[in-house]
Each structure stands twice: as C-alpha cells, then as structure tokens.
Amino acid sequence: MRSHDARRHNLLQLVWCALIHEQDPGPVMARLYWRNEAEVVAGGLLSEIPEVSEGEYDEDNMPKGLDE
C-alpha cells in the first residue's frame, strides 16, 4: 500500500466485488484506497445501496458478522 498524506487523505475505503465473474474464478481480491472525505461527499453519495439479483453474487464473498 502506498503512503498517504494524512492531512489530505483522511478516509480509508475497502472495496471488493462479491459478484460472480466466470472469467475470473479466483479468490476475491480486496483493495484499499485512501481518499479525501470532503471530496467524496462533494462528489455525491448514493441515497440507496444498489441491489443485486439472487445468483449474481457468491454468499461466501459477503462480509460475515463476528459471531458467524
């Protein structure tokens, strides 16, 4: 992971895709991005989380609670 300027980048974003991709059947690779919170908010936030249809994602790729 690259270093970041804490004065400018104050938001850590963890991103992964839980969708099933036949062309890439390997493990899910999470990525980390340092971002600037003010720039993210100014760019507009989603009012609702997009939903996927059943069968489009692998349940094993979804986050689990600590008790699971």
Features:
68 residues, mainly beta, two-stranded antiparallel sheet, 1 helix, 9% helix, 15% strand
Descriptive report:
By secondary structure, the chain is mainly β. It has 1 helix and 2 strands, in the order E-E-H. It has a two-stranded antiparallel ribbon. The model has no long low-confidence stretch (mean pLDDT 79).
Which structural class should the secondary elements be placed in?
mainly beta
Largest sheet: 2 strands, antiparallel
The amount of helix comes to under 10%
- Mean of residue pLDDT values: 79
* Oligomeric state of this protein: single chain
Shape type: extended
Low-confidence stretches: none
Radius of gyration: 15 Å
Termini separation: 29 Å
Specify the number of helices: 1
Strand order of the largest sheet: 1-2
Q: Which H/E pattern describes the elements? A: EEH
The total count of strands amounts to: 2
What topology does this entry show?
Elements (H helix, E strand, L loop, with lengths): L10 E5 L15 E5 L1 H6 L26
Provide a short characterization of the protein structure.
The chain is mainly β.
